[in-house]
């Protein structure tokens, strides 16, 4: 077996321990004689997996099941861009969006098709290298909700604080940094994340929603599939969910817990990011980080080299050195190292020795 360090932005690396458990249980899940893939979503075994996955997501997030539900939906984080305004933006209201990157732009664009939207701030003019400060956020009078994107996966910027938006429900796209650092998650009313970055495989979107918000949803939705309340009442089993994906999320939630929880992972993630940013900062301008220092992402580290030829060479040589997935997104160019929870410290150490050596040889 030959595993490489996987810096892919998503789908991305999964913990090896979890993959090995999946492999062990693939043909005969804990004495059932069948695979989880072959199991009814209505079976008691699957209901257990589903229920425990919800409980562990809440536990790892530091939230109480009295106040929140966790839903496992399909359609990606991208469907949430529509579901949120469909459910929570009534015709006479306005929703506020803070636009800090490409996915935030998409969320904003989809919401505009559904209702009245106000942009509370955008950092497009800095080419998404910054996050607005609290005093730069201009909320509307009484927004139906405020939407932010906690980590910009493509440009590599992350909110260093949770904005205060008064009484308005705070909705966050946390696809690329959920459970990666200690945060007061109870500041949010709806948290959503495509699982394929920090929680599991592609095919499932986790939605953590405050129960009291469920009561406020619109009742004129065109499809039951678009209703959070229907999914919540059915424990995510209104229709057939992505059962195998939910199973892997459950295993990963156990792994997070076994690692010591989000606080411990957050400390490791900080060490990982500090190493890579340290190499950028010590390179005398050979590597140029995209993000402003105070907005640097702990998950997606983006940087440029002196020219595109060197960037191509960097990716090729890194691949030969068994580090893959480092090519930046086409809209930013350069290099992006995605270092989600499942990337071990050793992976970042290997990347940094490669970076230091590459700069010495080519600088
Ligand atoms: C990846 C990503 C998305 C898109 O997720 P899909 O599951 O592919 O729809 C949305 N928002 C953020 C912040 C992302 O990183």
Folded structure, characterized:
The structure is a single chain. This protein is of the alpha/beta class and 363 residues long. It folds into two domains: 16-258, Type I PLP-dependent aspartate aminotransferase-like (Major domain) (Aspartate Aminotransferase, domain 2, 3-Layer(aba) Sandwich); 261-362, Aspartate Aminotransferase, domain 1 (Alpha-Beta Complex). It contains ten helices and 14 strands. The protein has helices spanning 16-25, 44-61, 76-88, 102-112, 211-214, 228-233, 243-258, 262-281, 308-320, 345-362, and strands spanning 5-6, 68-73, 94-99, 116-122, 146-149, 151-152, 157-158, 170-173, 190-194, 205-210, 288-289, 300-304, 323-324, 335-338. A seven-stranded mixed β-sheet has the order 2-10-9-8-5-3-4, with helices on both faces. It has a three-stranded antiparallel β-sheet with strand order 11-12-14. The chain has a two-stranded parallel sheet with strand order 1-13. β3 (94-99), α4 (102-112) and β4 (116-122) form a beta-alpha-beta unit. α8 (262-281) runs parallel beside α10 (345-362). It is globular, with a radius of gyration of 21 Å. 47% of the residues are buried. Bound molecules: pyridoxal-5'-phosphate. Pyridoxal-5'-phosphate (PLP) binds at residues 10, 76-78, 103, 149, 153, 173, 175-176, 194, 197.
């Amino acid at each position: 077996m030959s595993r490489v360090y996987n810096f892919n932005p998503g789908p991305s690396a999964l913990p090896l321990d979890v993959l090995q458990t999946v492999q062990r249980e693939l043909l005969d899940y804990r004495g059932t004689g069948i695979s989880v893939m072959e199991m009814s979503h209505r079976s008691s075994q699957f209901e257990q997996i589903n229920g425990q996955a919800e409980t562990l997501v809440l536990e790892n997030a530091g939230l109480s099941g009295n106040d929140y539900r966790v839903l496992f939906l399909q359609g990606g984080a991208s469907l949430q861009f529509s579901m949120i305004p469909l459910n929570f933006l009534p015709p006479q209201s306005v929703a506020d969006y803070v636009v800090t990157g490409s996915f935030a732009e998409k969320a904003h664009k989809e919401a505009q098709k559904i209702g009245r939207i106000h942009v509370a701030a955008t950092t497009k003019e800095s080419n998404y290298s910054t996050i607005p400060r609290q005093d730069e956020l201009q909320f509307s009078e009484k927004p139906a909700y405020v939407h932010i994107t906690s980590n910009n996966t493509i440009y590599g910027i992350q909110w260093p604080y949770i904005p205060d938006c008064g009484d308005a429900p705070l909705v966050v796209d946390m696809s690329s940094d959920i459970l990666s650092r200690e945060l007061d998650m109870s500041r949010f009313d709806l948290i959503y994340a495509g699982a394929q970055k920090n929680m599991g495989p592609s095919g499932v979107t986790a939605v953590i929603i405050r129960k009291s918000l469920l009561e406020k949803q619109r009742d004129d939705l065109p499809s039951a599939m678009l209703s959070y309340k229907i999914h919540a009442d059915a424990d995510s089993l209104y229709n057939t969910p992505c059962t195998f994906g939910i199973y892997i999320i459950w295993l990963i939630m156990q792994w997070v817990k076994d690692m010591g929880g989000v606080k411990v992972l957050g400390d490791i993630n900080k060490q990982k990011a500090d190493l890579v940013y340290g190499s950028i900062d010590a390179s005398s301008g050979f590597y140029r980080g995209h993000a402003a220092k105070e907005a640097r992402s702990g998950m997606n580290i983006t940087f440029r080299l002196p020219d595109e030829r060197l960037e191509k060479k960097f990716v090729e040589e890194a691949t030969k050195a068994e580090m893959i997935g480092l090519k930046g997104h086409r809209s930013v160019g350069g290099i992006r190292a995605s270092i989600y929870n499942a990337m071990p410290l050793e992976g970042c150490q290997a990347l940094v020795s490669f970076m230091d050596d590459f700069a010495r040889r080519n600088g």
